[in-house]
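**Folding the chain**
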Amino acid sequence: MERLQEKLGYRFRDRTLLTTALTHPSFGSDHHVAHYQRLEFLGDAVLELVVSQYLYQSLPDMPEGTLTRMRAHAVREEALFQAARRLELGRLVRLSVGEERTGGREKPSILADVAEAVFAAVYLDGGLEAARRAILASLGELLDMRSLSDCLDEKSRLQEAMQKRGAMPRYVFVSCEGPAHAPTFRYQVWEGEAMLGEGEGASKQLAQQAAAKNALQKLGADHCG
């Protein structure tokens, strides 16, 4: 428990909150004590708020749709499982004998739930700022822009790459060829007076995506921004 508090960067005043956050429902049922499910419910909301604020402030020009995908990527079960393993929650969670035997300490679903419950416990004990610090410390490199860019499409990745140098992509329509029922659109993407890439597709959106991909390849940023 001491090591966990060090990793969270927070020391509890009410240790029972942390104990509850580390108690699986199977253990709670067997021993008639509180378990983490209600804390998990609250922790999910606190986590989304903290990550939303972090992305909103870190990426002031990123559109809503992209921010939503990045948030979902950051708070998905796999990400929380990695955070839980970093916090070593598996060795601290209280499980029933049956859940222990079936490998509960390494189940991603359980550890992700415990992580959310722990974040809620910090929030209840120390407030939103304490929870924010604990969450950002726990997620660590999972909130790195290179990691978050894994969830982005080519246009979003190109926009992120160009924003780092103070620019924004501009898409220019070139042509539309072929029959009405099967057209082929061609677009170029520009930065100021420089043409970065071009591409074609069966729709305007697909053509723009192809142009962005071509630009990313030329910029050497086609993998994770």
